[in-house]
Amino acid sequence: MPCLYFLLQIGCVMKILFVCSANVWGGNEKWTSMAMAELEKSHKVFLCYKNELLSDKFHTNSLKLKVPLRNYLDIVTFYKLFLFVKKHNIDVIIPTKKKEYFICGIIAKLSGIKNVLRLGSVRNLDKPVWHNIVYGKLNHGIIVNAHRIKQNLLRYKFMRAKRIKVIYNGIVQTDIKKCTKPKDTFTITSSGRLTKLKGFHLLIKAVSELPMGIKQKIQVKIIGEGPFLQELQELAEQLHVATIISFTGFIDEPQRIISESDLFVLLSFNEGLSNSLLEAMINGIPVFTTDVGGVREFIKNSVNGFITDSRDPTDIAAALENIIQNKSKLHKIGQKGRNIVKELFSMDKMGSEINNFLKTVVTERTNNE
């Protein structure tokens, strides 16, 4: 395909197919939507999806394909996706979840196109044969959103550094909104899918251990929905903090609530780079987070945010108490956090880096041919 190499050098329009088997909206899906929006400025973008309720949330003016995406060997999905790829002359497939990596890898091999994985969290590849096939043989590139994820992947002999590209998430730049809450109330927000992995139970337990004088002056808002909701509500009742902690459910634009808080807390057990964390920081809200994913790549403890290595609620409570008692310092810390996010996490930069990486991947194939 020598003509493809020539066209790419002068800015050829690529045909890029994103695949998403999600049933619920989360950080991974938000990244997909943002990446599609940026790439659609220069290329033809398509979407293969599973859940009809989510399809309209993904930004694209191009065609969409609905498939079952039931499992790794879903014949219907293989057939429909393969025909779609051939009919529309797709150049690159970008799967975003484990189930899709294998399916898209096989289709890419059969179609002679590129399969570029998007991986948004630290993942241990503890099945050597299977993971060698999926992550080593069936893809032509991997996009990750933190250097820590790349370093973890390179622990495995079958991974090649040149195939792994670190591209930070983009974040929409916003103006800081004025706070409308009562001045004598300290508001903590947290946001994400309500699963145990996100550590909301640690926040509830930590709040329950705060001194009574502090508990009387704080409000905690947990934004999101998920299977852990009832258990979290029951935990708040058991620990007698249900009057302090409120669950808002899913909100399309959580920035409105986050921007009115004094502190954003994220106590996840595993992340890449949390969109919620970045959304808080771009609003000038100081953040307190566990040491997961790439947070130490842009947060310096007690300088532009707060980081804890502990998963012990007592330790977390002590850290929260110290932050709240020194709230006069929070505005400056929040502003420094905002500045670093503006510098590192622009949408234009994210779009440009994805675009350049995909072009490199495609031209490498052409050169090899």
Entry keywords:
elongated, Rossmann fold, disordered N terminus, 369 residues, single chain, 16% strand, alpha/beta, 7-stranded parallel beta sheet, 2 domains
| N-to-C CA distance | 7 Å
Over the alpha carbons, how many angstroms does the gyration radius reach? 22 Å
CATH class of the largest domain: Alpha Beta
Give a count of the beta strands, DSSP E runs of length 2 or more. 13
Instruction: Give helix % range.
Output: 40-55%
Short recap of the structure:
The chain is an alpha/beta fold.
Task: Summarize the structure in words.
The chain folds into two domains: 2-169 and 347-368, Rossmann fold (3-Layer(aba) Sandwich), CATH 3.40.50; 186-344, Glycogen Phosphorylase B (Rossmann fold), CATH 3.40.50. The chain is 42% helix and 16% strand. The protein contains 15 helices and 13 strands. The protein has helices at residues 2-9, 27-39, 52-55, 75-87, 98-111, 128-137, 147-153, 200-208, 212-215, 229-238, 255-258, 275-282, 313-325, 330-344, 347-368, and strands spanning 15-20, 44-49, 64-66, 92-95, 114-119, 141-144, 164-166, 186-191, 218-223, 245-249, 263-266, 287-290, 306-308. A seven-stranded parallel beta sheet has the order 3-2-1-4-5-6-7, with helices on both faces. The chain has a six-stranded parallel beta sheet with strand order 10-9-8-11-12-13, sandwiched between helices. The chain is elongated.
